[in-house]
Amino acid sequence: MTIDSVDNKKIKNIRKLNQKKYRDETNEFLVEGIHLVKEAYKEGLLKEVVLEENEEIDFKVDTTYVTYNVIKSISSLDTPYKIIGVKRKKNKK
Question: Do the beta carbons of residue 62 and residue 2 sit within 8 Å?
Fold first, then answer.
């Protein structure tokens, strides 16, 4: 199923990660682009992937398919990537 509403509850929660307060509360943040998402996956810190519809990725994580307008509403970039990851922060030692 593809989410096409920017008012979807899950999308609103993901979009909140653009705010420092919410990132600090959840210990999660957004990574944009395939390279950063792959690095997060390799580190074992990738919680979820938001992927533009009709794109595919072979990661064993929760994947949410969205329209271009939804991914644009999440992204902090003028021209968003087709993939955004929700990454857990590393534990401080």
Answer: no
> Which residue stretches of 1-93 are H helix?
9-15, 20-26, 34-43, 68-74
Cross-strand pairs, 50: 64, 84
What radius of gyration do the chain's Cα atoms show? 12
Count CB neighbours of 61 within 10 A.
Answer: 14
3-state SS, residue 77: coil
What distance in Å separates the CA atoms of residue 33 and residue 52, rounded to the nearest whole number? Answer: 12
Distance CA 32, CA 36 (A): 6
- 46-52 vs 62-66, strand pairing mode: parallel
The answer on pLDDT for 92 being more than 70 is no
CB 71 within 8 A of CB 82: yes
What digits encode the pLDDT tens for the residues 2-55? Answer: 999 999 999 999 999 999 999 999 999 999 999 999 999 999 999 999 999 999
